[in-house]
Design brief:
Elements (H helix, E strand, L loop, with lengths): L42 E6 L14 H8 L14 H4 L2 E6 L7 H16 L4 E6 L5 H12 L2 E6 L19 H7 L3 E11 L7 H8 L2 E5 H7 L1 H12 L3 E7 L21 H9 L5 E8 L10 H25 L1
Helix pairs in contact: 1-10, 3-4, 4-5, 7-8, 8-9, 9-10
């Protein structure tokens, strides 16, 4: 695959829902073409069906396909951002990076290699997990291209713990590893939506030493989405930005289908509005993880996740189009 832009006739968009009902046909993300059906992709939506790093309820290995199914109802014009993302840039579904479910270290290496291949084509990544372990190899790959990146981490939890049962790679450790490996810009790191009990106050002390700022879910409630988005924009500046979203940043009322739910979270509206407020940031890639459909009801979690991925994809498509003039 080349790094050339999409054909001069313009990007290939979603299947026409006036001709093929939304519930028919293959469940690619937003009913977009597969990667092998286009000349090149500006944004590759890729699944990583891996959840061997979870510490409580498993099932996120099925998250990517659940999000794809829920994304059938997405439409090509995004009024909140006044953009038609799939007309601005070629977005395609790159399928899944298949990783060994029985060996975490090998899986991390496989995911990194798969991300390297996709980023090497010139695409940005919108990755659908899978558990949060996958953020580490994705960040390694992005940092090879952009250097240490700013990170916005939307999550109920810090995910900066050291080990769990002696394992250095779990869904609770990716960002400590990323700081240790020097692939994050430690002047521009933020957690958003954190809440709930911790093992001890030392968790917060260690997290602060790594450079993270914290915006709790209560902060979002008290201060409002516009003020929070402005604070995050100022912290990020013009640095290359990676956004990692654990769907449990949402309250269980909005995302019951996840492995480690915590009461008191963001609403789906708050999450979407904060992301829209980050549209001016230089978003180089993103992931959305921890959707576990076995615990979902009526696709509540998958629908929220599909719209979240849609907003992130729109931001990237707008920036790609603007860079091309």
């Amino acid at each position: 695959m080349t790094t050339a832009p999409a054909a001069s006739s313009g990007p290939v968009g979603p299947t026409d829902s006036s001709r093929v009902p939304r519930y028919a046909g293959p469940a690619t993300f937003a009913r977009l073409p597969r990667l092998d059906q286009v000349t090149a992709a500006d944004v590759a939506v890729v699944g990583v069906p891996f959840d061997t790093g979870v510490s409580y309820r498993p099932g996120a290995r099925f998250g990517g396909n659940a999000i794809r199914e829920a994304s059938r109802l997405l439409r090509p014009y995004n009024p909140a951002q006044d953009a038609s993302p799939f007309a601005l840039a070629q977005v395609a579904d790159a399928g899944d990076i298949a990783a060994n479910p029985f060996h975490i270290n090998e899986a991390v290496e496989t995911i990194e290699a798969g991300a390297d291949d996709l980023l090497g084509t010139g695409a940005r990544l919108m990755t659908l997990g899978g558990d949060h372990t996958i953020a580490l190899p994705l960040l390694r790959s992005v940092a090879k291209k952009h250097g240490p990146v700013a990170l916005l981490h939307f999550d109920a939890h810090l995910d900066t713990w050291d080990t769990y049962f002696g394992a250095e790679y779990t869904h609770g450790t990716p960002f400590r590893r990323a700081v240790e490996e020097g692939i994050l810009d430690t002047s521009a790191l933020s957690h958003v939506g954190t809440r709930g009990p911790l093992y001890g106050k030392q968790d917060l002390t260690d997290d602060e030493k790594m450079g993270f700022g914290i915006v709790t879910s209560a902060d979002v409630m008290r201060r409002g989405v516009d003020e929070i988005a402005d604070q995050l924009r100022q912290r990020i500046g013009d640095r290359p930005l990676y956004i990692s979203i654990d769907i449990d940043v949402l309250d269980p009322a909005h995302a019951p289908g996840t492995g480690t739910p915590e009461a008191g979270g963001l609403t789906s509206r708050e999450l979407l509005e904060i992301l829209r407020g980050l549209a001016s940031c230089h978003l180089v890639s993103a992931d959305l993880v921890e959707v576990a459909p076995a615990y979902d009801h009526a696709e509540i979690t998958s629908v929220a996740a599909s719209h979240t991925a849609y907003e992130l994809t729109t931001i990237m498509a707008r920036q790609i189009a603007a860079a091309r003039g």
